[in-house]
Write a structure and sequence with these properties.
Length: about 270
């Protein structure tokens, strides 16, 4: 795609705004299928040793989210995790998507058990299917979704698709260095992604939605016509502070351009 066309396509999303309704982060633009993308933000903070254990009684660490500031272009949240960790989120609408800046602090005298957290991004309407995941075949959107394996875009279901786990269906790819037992209790794919991007193509194949976090715990395809890049906290030590960055890309269907932007943002596209 020529630079002029790229600029024209990016300009179409200058009207992108962000909103907060209950636990939903909502991206809005007349250029989006259905006019919006909804994100359960955050669905949960999670403990380690999560792949084969009960989601409710073990994995989820409860939290409460408070809106500190809300404008059409920026939202600031403060999460108070039940073990005393605070996470401040600055969420900013950009011409090509959304930027996340998080600061996690453990001001307590105890190590935190929160190792990762998951934003659940609902993409039924964006991919050309029903926005209500309770209707139809929940796997109908899979062919629109992708991760990168061996340096190449791989659409779902990817190779070595696993169909057994504590909870079904879905698919998880753990980040490099993450233990298999410390990820979502859905089927764990044996392949480790080449980078932290997970995404999908719009129903008309003109637009890519992709998301990434640094650091990240896992990439995940779920049961609500959703995809996740779940960010890593690592169990903050007493007194520890960490900064976490995230991105959502809403860009023209140009995969090499997406990878170049990801590399500029995170420096990981070639790894």
């Amino acid at each position: 795609m020529s630079p002029i066309l790229l600029l024209a396509a990016a300009a179409a999303l200058t009207s992108l705004t962000v909103d907060r309704q209950e636990n939903w982060l909502i991206l809005k633009s007349p250029d989006l299928p259905g006019g919006e993308i909804r994100i359960n933000y955050l669905e949960a903070y999670c403990r380690a040793n999560s792949h084969s254990t009960d989601w409710v009684s073990h994995t989820v660490v409860k939290h409460k989210s408070t809106v500190v500031e809300k404008t059409p272009k920026r939202i600031r949240l403060r999460d108070l995790v039940s073990d005393g960790v605070t996470v401040d989120h600055t969420i900013s609408a950009r011409a090509d998507g959304v930027e996340f800046r998080l600061v996690a602090k453990n001001a307590t005298a105890k190590d935190s058990e929160a190792h990762w957290a998951q934003p659940c991004i609902r993409l039924g309407a964006f991919t050309g299917f029903d926005a209500d995941h309770r209707k139809g075949n929940i796997d109908d959107y899979l062919g629109k979704c992708f991760v990168f394996l061996d340096g190449k875009l791989s659409t779902m279901p990817t190779r070595d698709w696993v169909k057994e786990a504590r909870y079904m269906p879905g698919q998880v790819w753990r980040a490099p260095g993450i233990l298999p037992e410390d990820v979502n209790p859905r089927p764990l794919n044996p392949n480790v992604p080449s980078n932290g991007l997970i995404g999908c193509f719009s129903g008309d194949n003109k637009t890519i939605f992709a998301t990434a976090w640094e650091p990240y715990q896992e990439l995940f395809q779920g049961i609500a016509r959703c995809i996740h890049s779940d960010f890593r906290l690592g169990g903050l030590k007493a007194g520890e502070k960490k900064e976490i960055r995230g991105r959502i890309y809403l860009v023209p269907n140009d995969v090499p351009a997406l990878l170049r932007q990801y590399e500029r943002d995170f420096g990981r596209a070639k790894k």
